Predict the 3D structure of the following.
Amino acid sequence: MRHLLLSAVLVLPVPAMADPASVLSNAVQGYIQPGFADLATSSAQMATTAEAHCAASDPELRTAFGAAWDDWIEMSHLRFGPTEVDNRAFALGFWPDSRGAIPKTLARLVADGDPAVNDPAEFAQISVAARGFTAMEFLLFDPAFAEDSPYLCDLRQAVAQDIAATTAAISDDWSGAYGAAFLSYGPDSSMRDETESLRALYGAIVTGLEFTKDARLGRPMGTFDRPRPTRAEAWRSGRTVRHIRLSLEGTAALADVLAGEETEVAAGMAAEYDRARLAIDRLQDPVLADVTEPSGWLRAEVVSQTVAGASLGVQNGIGVYYDLSAGFNALDGD
Amino acid sequence: MTSRRAFLSGLVAAGIAPVPGWADAGAPDFLAAGQAVDGSYTLCGLYDTGTIAFRIPLPDRGHAAAAHPIRPEAVAFARRPGTFALVIDCRTGRVPIRLNAPAERHFYGHGAFSADGRLLFTTENAYEEGQGRIGVWDAAEGYRRVGEFASGGVGPHEILRLPGTDTLVVANGGIDTHPDSGRAKLNIPVMEPSLAYLSLDGVILEQHGLRADWHMNSIRHLAARADGTVAAAMQWQGDITAAPPLLLTHRLGETPRFLARDGDDHRQMQGYAGSVAFTGDGTQVAISSPRGGLVQMFDPDTGASTAQIAAQDVCGLAVAEDGVFVTAGTGQLSQLSTPDTVTDLTRHGLAWDNHVVPIASAATRQPLLPNRT
């Protein structure tokens, strides 16, 4: 039966199918490698800036920090391979932090005057709660850590340097051995076949959108009767909605690359993403503090629904096109 | 003075009480939760032929159930972080009692009864502390909450009672979650799963962690054989190319044994085992991977791999008289007989959720030892 179908296809003038191999190499070379290279560059820039500008309120440090965090949020849905080695993704962003581990750990470092800040290798071993962009946000924007003591200065420099080292390692892996293995298939490679590579990227998009919906939107929204605005991501630095937008755009760009030359697939997904963009444009509060009002909560709810729509669009788009649509249990086990 | 409860259980033991038991006709063989085409959630009683005995609407997604050892009654649990559980009369499918998790607790989706059926034990998250708890409910008094104790770890998932004993075994998955961030995993870098044996009053009798480089292998689901052999299925949280074995077997007082097929076969499980079950004769143990669309079978006594069977979106496994009863997200119900024969029973317009739980069989059909006399 299968042979019959194949020969039938061979004699018909079929339109060119997106070639998974070239789509995948475009994704790695045109999207993943440059994205992580940008992140490594902006992170190194932040570390350099922190050397000369380590005050919490320093505008140059805050700008460099914002640029690097932007680059991470845009790529943060790629939670497999190099980002998972040594828990690098957790070391870049420890969120949600439901029990307040970040301020507790930072406060302990400060109280002890922990010398790990003077040794990058040692600093890389401390709790992930005190590392990464989420810790840096506390050190730049939380009044409890606003002091410009020499120790806090050292701590900001140590966190910035640690972020630079982590992002450089991710970028190096993707430009080197891991990126090559991702595109060469076999039982001994990190990917068994092209479908497995496609599935990894597709899964990253779907789970990335789900995280934006459930955590970035769901946490501050809480329930209609009990919204929780201080559970929003990055509210201290005023970046909550910015992260929602950046994470959405990060997955949109990858979905578009994976659609290859299948313009119909790409257009179907883009239409859903456009709905989400429009809903985000209508948000009025950059940190979603207005979820405490019915109208603000409902605006966030619309975003949540359109992000779910974007996810469905991707599932019905590249998921169906490459036959990646996972089953009820496969996609969401327990 | 004889308490009312002791009096009643005395009657049950004497076999003269007018209390219905599992032997009464009509009770199905299995319970499984699922999602209907219209998106609504349901819990079904199933006969081993694949026929649906009853359907109960669920307010939210279900997960697994615990069968009462004497009465034809089961408790079905919400999927984590759910806070409800339903007591079901398995002859009729009626729901006489609803359990609600106490404040600052949610269910993980599994539970087990004491041998006399008096107490129900439920795995729960004390989420403000990030610690696992075992909730205790008095089944003889309308499932009143009577207490709780520590599970011996974080994220306790499945709990079982060792057959013929009052020893509980708990899979402490190790993963910390908090309902205000949904199902997001909060502690992967430092997670420490364990297999813990506890008495009914919460004393830890024995506990096994994993070696340091396997600490991200979440111990989640359990099956037990009549001789006390426990099989535990695991879910790897690291890179799938580095996935360690996803199945362990263990007996009290011994060292855990880890089981996996070689190379690419193991790889195809995608680092994820969703359910585990012994075969009815106890000679084999099966794990399922919905991500890999595979069931793998092993000899629990030698560790040898015996079979690998492909089945799309397969997840639920339950001990059955002749092998293992299998459910899948495609709606398919199958019977798996040793060594590797799959008989398709029927396909329903329901996506079967993670687990299928043996019920009518619970009192009489524990998996046996080979040549057991």
Remarks:
- Residues 1-15 of chain B have pLDDT under 50 and may be disordered.
